[in-house]
Amino acid sequence: MPAKKDPDASVSVPCFYGAELRFKREQAGLTLEQLAEGSFRGISFLSQIERGERRMPMDLARHVDERLGTDGFFQRRCEDAAKARRVGHPLGFQDVPDLEKQAKTLEEWGPNVIPGLLQTADYMRGLVRYERPLTPPETAEERIRARMARAELWKREDRPNYWGILRESVIRRTPVPPAVMADQLKHVVDLIRSTQSILQIVPETTPWHPLMHGMAKIMTFAEAPPLVWTDTNFDGRIIDFPTLVNEYRGSYDLLRAVALPPEASLALIEEAARTYRHEAQQA
Asked: Which residues form the HTH cro/C1-type domain (predicted)?
């Protein structure tokens, strides 16, 4: 078995925090299982913190300081690491960008909007304008920059394999201006084709299907159990309970079965882009 890769502490504050945790744990001669014992947290959760992928909750920071005798270090720096991860992202979303970078596969269901990794800046501005009209302009731009930074993932040679599914209404019914939507849909098609990713559309003629009522992002990892991210208008959560993850896995697989084939889906998106472009030119 190859040696486990050391976390790169220079990447970010959470990575530095995680690398320090691993150093102190190994210095104390403890395994992940031994350190997690009595903390009400799982081994995989602790391992993800060491890799800079998850934030350290305060109750676990207290437990770690007690077990490792680190004089409150992890409690004092817990909020610093959380703030570093939160910049430009909603509170409940702060772990997701790092998890996306570490994922082996990403599978997304977008029933209401185009997923963030596929969005253009102008499309996101449109969403903020209509969904969060009271958001201060500087806050909106900070979130747009953070979302565009997430999209840097596509430029990496070791990027995760991506499979997305959208409801047809996402591209047919939108308040976003036609010119913006035309550019957005072209961006989606170009990105999916250039990265050899897969995107499917659930047609409007299929009104009932699995995962009817909310988005889902399923992430798998080389050295950790799979996770699911799901959210609503005002909050989100990471699901790591194996039974629930398997439920999402099964529903997503059924959703693939009712969606259009990948090439037919991209053709539909291209047709919609041409329609929006024509509308923009006629305006």
From this structure: 21-55
For 160, which DSSP code?
Answer: P
Q: What are phi and psi of 165, to 5 degrees?
A: -135, 130
Total domains, the chain: 2
Per the structure, the complete domain to which residue 129 belongs is given by 91-282
Q: What is the CATH number of the domain that holds 184?
A: 3.30.870
C-alpha 18/C-alpha 225 separation (Å) is 18
CA 265 to CA 20: how far, in whole Å?
46
Same-domain pairing of 54 and 77:
yes
Q: In whole angstroms, what is the distance from residue 7 CA to residue 52 CA?
A: 8
| Joined tokens for residue 146 | 């953070």
Do the beta carbons of residue 186 and residue 171 sit within 8 Å? no
User: What digits encode the pLDDT tens for the residues 43-69?
Assistant: 888 888 888 777 788 888 899 999 999
What does R_g of the chain's alpha carbons equal in angstroms?
Answer: 21
Residue-wise pLDDT for 187-229, tens only, equals 999 999 999 999 999 999 998 999 988 899 999 998 788 999 9
DSSP-based helix, strand, coil % in the chain, nearest 5: 55, 10, 35
Q: CB atoms < 10 A from the CB of 193, how many?
A: 11
Q: Are 165 and 231 within 8 A, CB to CB? A: no
